[in-house]
Amino acid sequence: MNDFNKKNVSRIVILGAGESGVGAAVLAKKQGFDTFVSDISEIKKSHKDILGKYGILYEEKRHSEEQILNADRIIKSPGISNKISIIEKMKERNIPIISEIEFAGYYTKAKTICITGSNGKTTTATLIYYILKYAGFDVALVGNVGKSLAMQVAEKDCNYYVIELSSFQLDGMYHFKADIAVLLNITSDHLDCYEYEIQNYINSKMRIIQNQTKNDIFIYWSDDLVIAREIQKMKPTVTFYPFSEQKQVGVKAYTENGNIKVETANGMFSMPQKYLVLRGKHNLYNSLAATAVAKLLGVKDEMLEHSFLNFKAIEHRMEKVAHIKGVDYINDSKATNVNSCFYVLQSMRTPIILILGGVDKGNDYSEIEGLVREKCRALIFLGVDNSKLHDFFDGKVNVIYDVDSMKKAIQYAYKIAQEGDTVLLSPCCSSFDLFQNYEDRGKQFKKYVCNL
């Protein structure tokens, strides 16, 4: 990509001074642009230190129009809403707004493996990175997990990037192209940010294949009806590489007779499914996608098998925290939508005390109703406003508690748990009512469990 140059761009303003924004600022400064950073909140000291090191001007706790609206380009951090007034004024002045990923893509020739989906993208991206790193690739894990792509490009450009992409990052991408695009699934999520129209959210997810050609690869879950419908509508000119649990016509990665199988140009790869340390059907799908990427990039069979045998689950994703008095405590704080919780409940084989709640994003809890009725002995609603949870679940589970802190949630769970139960934090909601983020929520869960 080479259509971003100093003939039409001299001043770049970055909105947001988190990981993404600071990375974009450093890359912009190194490329010789007049660079300014603005954050409506207080900037972390570590990020201020980086900005100071490179002599980048910034402001915090405000957005000054005189400093922002004279930009030739705006790089917006993905967490910033499109509805704030400064964004509206940028649009009125036709100032182009792009994402940090889009900007960084102009300054690297690396091969890009891009992963998105409503659920499973962090696990899949981390697994792909782990496999490629073990196989000796010059690779970095960036995007919605790991470092910002811009910072990595600015400091040490790699030959390969595994990039986890949220819908918000995809919204700000226009010319960026994935060499390998992985789309795991599309289910209802973030509808509060998409005018409560699921098609708007679907359109964002499908942007992962924009700009791809026949020489690029699109790996996707063939059983996802939404993806299948969008493919029929878009008719993209890409090389398709679908995966499924079962062998089907046209599917390239699947399971058969207890083995994971991937069809490649160089023959068939086969590995016992029991090698997968990640359990649950959702992790089987993640593993199939990761295996397809690895084999398409030429990873040797023995290296791939070693990676699966040794890979550890990521923090806050079905993370077993403790076994206390015959009760398992599992931290699945990263389950910020209903579909993610569905797969976890589906994989459980014990009675469950489920902790859920937070900021509702337009959730439809009917997806987990059957599993909750079947498997949950009790529900603990953890949030500032639990009214929507009560509206749906009251009368469907005998025991329901309301709490406004993680400490209370664990106290109640410990009190009612019986030997053989699982206390599961799988909230279905975002965390910003009581916690800084899902990591903070998960860490508090672990803290209070370990204090029992």
UniProtKB/TrEMBL annotation:
Cellular localization per UniProt: Cytoplasm
Cross-referenced InterPro entries: Mur-like_cat_sf, Mur_ligase_C, Mur_ligase_C_dom_sf, Mur_ligase_cen, MurD
GO MF term (any one): ATP binding
Transmembrane portions of the chain: none
EC number(s) from the headed UniProt entry: 6.3.2.9
GO biological process: cell division; cell wall organization; peptidoglycan biosynthetic process; regulation of cell shape
Residues in Mur ligase C-terminal domain copies: 316-428
Entry binding sites for ATP: 117-123
Keywords for the protein's UniProt record, in alphabetical order: ATP-binding, Cell cycle, Cell division, Cell shape, Cell wall biogenesis/degradation, Cytoplasm, Ligase, Nucleotide-binding, Peptidoglycan synthesis
Catalytic activity: UDP-N-acetyl-alpha-D-muramoyl-L-alanine + D-glutamate + ATP = UDP-N-acetyl-alpha-D-muramoyl-L-alanyl-D-glutamate + ADP + phosphate + H(+)
UniProt keyword Cytoplasm, yes or no: yes
Single GO cellular component term: cytoplasm
Gene3D superfamilies the UniProt entry points to: Mur ligase, C-terminal domain (3.90.190.20), Mur-like, catalytic domain (3.40.1190.10), NAD(P)-binding Rossmann-like Domain (3.40.50.720)
UniProt entry tagged with the keyword Cell wall biogenesis/degradation: yes
Domain Mur ligase central: 115-294
Pathway annotation: Cell wall biogenesis; peptidoglycan biosynthesis
Family: Belongs to the MurCDEF family.
Role according to the record: Cell wall formation. Catalyzes the addition of glutamate to the nucleotide precursor UDP-N-acetylmuramoyl-L-alanine (UMA).
Protein name as it appears in the record: UDP-N-acetylmuramoylalanine--D-glutamate ligase
Gene: murD
